[in-house]
C-alpha cells in the first residue's frame, strides 16, 4: 500500500501559519493550515518492504492429503478396498480394478494386488490389477482367456418355479425342431379370478401381460351382464329405481354422520 | 400496372403458352419406350374375379404392398420412389436428356473400354506365365507362384474398376437385384457391410469379450444374421428363453466367390460351475459340411441332415441369479475338399466343456463370421428347461458373502460399557 507523504504539505501549512500569525487568531490560523493541507496535492510513495508481503505473494502449502499407495503388491484385498490415492492418473486401473471420480484406484474383486506395465495395451502407462492367485503374473499372455470367478452359491429355491404349460398348435413353422417335433406356443394360464373368466392375457412388449382393448370393451358381454332396456314411458320402473337411489343416498348420509360427526 | 409489366405482358403470355405446350408435349410423351403406368389400361380378363398383378416398382398404398408381400415379392425402394415411377414418364436412365450427364457417360464408357482391354491383356499374361517353365523364371517355382498370385489379384482389381463407375450397377445393387456371382456386386455388398454392420459386430466382440474368452483372435469376413422364427436378433440382444427354444435361422453372406462347406457352432461361454468357482462353456448346436455360396445365403439350422448334424439344438437357458449367458454363433469355413466325419465327431465331442479353440485347432477350420445373443432367467425359462429335460430349474444363485478384512468395530457408548451383569442394577 502506498502511503501518502504528509511531511511536505504539513511543513507548507505551518509556514503559512507562521507567515499569517501576526494578523489572525489561533483558530483562524488552524483553519488556514487545514485549508493549505487540502489544497496541496498528496505525494504517494513506496517503501522497501510492507506488512502484507509475507502472506499475499507466498506459494501456498496446506496440510498433506495422505495420497499414495494404501495396499502394497501381493497384498490381499476385498472388493471396494482402496489401493492407490492420487491426483490425476499416475496409475491406471488394470485387471479387476476400477477408478473413482478423483482417480482413486480400488479393487472390484477379492484377490492380490499387482503393480505392472502392459506395453501392448499402452506404451507408457502403468497399471494396478488384482489377481486371484498370488503367483499369477500380470499382464496376462496375449489372446489368453480372461480369468473369472463365479463368486456365487447355488441354493435350492423354497418355492420351485412353475413350468408353464405349452399349448400345442398344429402350425409347423420353419425352424421347428429336428425330427419334425411339433413346436409349442406357450400360453400362460393364470388362476382365473371371479369376474375375470375368459380373459386372454398375451405377453406384450415390456414383459407385460395384457388383453387387447377391444377385449376389455367386451368384458360385460362375456360376463353375461344383463341390462334392461330403457323404456321411456314406464314410470313405475323409474319410480322404483328412484326409490332405491334415495334410500342408498340416505344411508350414505347417515353413515357419514355417525362416523364423521363428533 | 407499371410500364415494364405492360411491356412484358406479351412475352409472359408467350412463355406461358410455351409451358403449356411443353406440358402437352409431355402428355404426348416423345422419346419414350415405356408408357406411363397410370395411363395403362387395366386388362380385363375373361373371369370376373381377377387377381390384380402388382408391380414391385409401382405399388404405392399399404394395402397393395401387403398383397404384394403375401405373394413373396417385396416392393422395391421407398414409397415415394414408387409413386414417382408410377406417375412419371420413365425415361431410361441412360437416355436422360442432359448434356453434361451424357458427356460424363461417354467419359466413363471410354474408361471402361480401357479397363476391359487391360483385363484382356492381364488374362493373356497370366496364361502365358502358367505356360512358361519354372526353370526359366528367375526364382523358380515359388517365385512363379508369387507372381501368378499378384497378377490374379490385379486382375480382380481391374474387374472391379471396370464396373465401379457404372450408375446402373449401383442402382441394381441398391435395389437388391445384384447378382452375387459377379465380383462387382460382391464388392459393393462387402463395402456396404464394412461401412456399418461389421463395425457393430466388432464392437460387440470387444464389449462382450468374445475374443479372449471364446477364440484367441477373430476378424469377421462374412455377414451373419440371426433370427428365431420371424424375430430378427440384433447382435448382443437379450432373447427370451421361449423364443430361443426353437433352433435359429442364419443368413450368411460371403463376399468371395465359390461354394464352400461350413460348420456352424453355437457356444454358451458362461455356464456357472459352483465347485470350481468359475465358468465353463457348453455347445448348444454343432453341424458340419453345410454348403454355402454367395448366392445361397440361408442356413436354417433345423434343416440339417443326418450327415451334417453333430449336436441338435439345445434351448438357451440361464438359471436364476446367474449372470447373463453369452451365446456365440460361429460360422467356420472348412478347407476346400475337407469333409468332417460327423459320426465320429458325435462320439468324440461332448456338449459340456466344449472348447471352440480346441475344435478350431483340431479340425483346421477358419472362423469367417459370427453373431451373438444373450440370455437371462425369465418367466419361461423353467418351462423351457423342463421341456428340454434339463435339471436345475429350481436352483438359484446367490452372491457369496465377502468376509471383511477389518474386525467389526466394538460397540461404543455408555450402554455398551455397562452391558455386563455387573451393572444389572443400572439397567432400565
UniProtKB/TrEMBL annotation, chain A:
Keyword Transferase: no
Keyword annotations of the record: Mitochondrion, Ribonucleoprotein, Ribosomal protein
Gene3D superfamilies according to UniProt: 2.40.50.100
Entries under PROSITE patterns matching the protein: RIBOSOMAL_L27 (PS00831)
A matching Pfam family: Ribosomal_L27
Record InterPro entries: Ribosomal_bL27, Ribosomal_bL27_CS
Molecular function via GO: structural constituent of ribosome
UniProt keyword annotation of Ribonucleoprotein present: yes
Main location: mitochondrion
Domain of life: Eukaryota
Database matches in SUPFAM superfamilies: Ribosomal L27 protein-like
Location of this chain's protein in the cell: Mitochondrion
PANTHER family, sorted: LARGE RIBOSOMAL SUBUNIT PROTEIN BL27M, RIBOSOMAL PROTEIN L27
Family statement drawn from the similarity comment of this UniProt entry: Belongs to the bacterial ribosomal protein bL27 family.
The protein's name in its UniProt record: Large ribosomal subunit protein bL27m
Higher taxonomy: Eukaryota, Fungi, Dikarya, Ascomycota, Pezizomycotina
From TrEMBL, chain B:
Recorded GO CC terms: mitochondrion
The keyword Isomerase appears for this protein: no
Annotated keywords: Mitochondrion
InterPro entries (UniProt xref): PEBP, PEBP-like_sf, PEBP_euk
Subcellular location: Mitochondrion
Family named by the database record: Belongs to the phosphatidylethanolamine-binding protein family. Mitochondrion-specific ribosomal protein mL38 subfamily.
Function: Component of the mitochondrial ribosome (mitoribosome), a dedicated translation machinery responsible for the synthesis of mitochondrial genome-encoded proteins, including at least some of the essential transmembrane subunits of the mitochondrial respiratory chain. The mitoribosomes are attached to the mitochondrial inner membrane and translation products are cotranslationally integrated into the membrane.
Protein name (record): Large ribosomal subunit protein mL38
Organism: Hyaloscypha bicolor E
